[in-house]
Design goal:
Length: 258
């Protein structure tokens, strides 16, 4: 079809064929999962860290007068912030390992009779990644549900402030809606003997208008979304690694050297 006297064209075709083979060996599901996992963990760790710090300031300023009332909450926040550092490092390394495992299994499947060949140890390693990733996905599902608690608290607080503002426009007396309160003790943020432990009426409405409230609310929403993205990435990892492992097992039963 092409003139043989043009060697540069043959070289170009050889480079094109090499690029096609390389692109065919790229584990696109694992690559997408890695990007999703990095994005989700960045949102969860970064926004969650700042949201916890702002929560401590809000509780200290408006919901607790004595330092002994929120010392447990402050200790929990400090502890969980260190946990966030560990989670970020662990998931970064683990996602890199899963991506490398995806490249290995995809190359072994695409290049069945080529240079890349799977071994029994490699298949055992792939099975180990499947089990560990599935366990992490189940654990992270609980973390995802736990992250919804502060979002629920701040959402209720914002709705309560909205109701107070509506009542303030329709009723002339402030005392008529002073009974509307937001109690932090009901959500486990403070012990039941904490004073005041709650904010009511226009005091609560003024808290919702502060910059700290809006920033903290948005940060918790971003952390909640990041946890959901990371959970989706883990499930995609489970599907991708299970498929690659199943294909390797199938080729092994067919007697093909892979």
């Amino acid at each position: 079809m092409f003139p043989v006297r043009q060697p540069w064209l043959c070289k170009a075709l050889g480079c094109y064929d090499c690029c096609i083979r390389c692109l065919g060996a790229v584990p696109y599901p694992s690559l997408v999962s890695t990007l999703l996992c990095f994005t989700g963990m960045a949102l969860f760790c970064g926004c969650g860290h700042e949201a916890l710090a702002n929560t401590e300031v809000l509780v200290e300023t408006y919901f607790a007068r004595n330092i002994q009332d929120y010392v447990i909450l402050a200790s929990f926040i400090k502890y969980f912030q260190f946990v966030i550092y560990g989670l970020a490092s662990f998931f970064f390394l683990y996602c890199i390992l899963l991506l490398a495992e995806g490249f290995y299994t995809t190359s072994a499947v695409k290049q069945t009779f080529g240079e890349f060949r799977s071994t029994r140890c490699g298949r055992c390693l792939s099975l180990t990644f499947i089990i560990v990733t599935y366990v992490l996905a189940v654990i992270w599902l609980a973390v995802f549900a736990f992250t919804a608690i502060p979002v629920f608290f701040f959402f209720n607080m914002a709705q309560t402030c909205h109701n107070i503002n509506i009542l303030a426009e329709t009723t002339p007396s402030i005392n008529q809606h002073g009974w509307i309160c937001m109690d932090a003790r009901q959500y486990g943020l403070l012990p039941w003997n904490a004073m005041p432990g709650k904010a009511c009426g226009m005091t609560l409405a003024s808290i919702c208008k502060t910059k700290e409230f809006f920033v903290t609310y948005d940060l918790y929403i971003a952390a909640f979304a990041g946890a959901g993205i990371a959970l989706l990435a883990l499930f995609l990892y489970v599907v991708a690694t299970t498929y690659n492992y199943a294909v390797l097992r199938f080729l092994g039963r067919k007697g093909l050297r892979c």
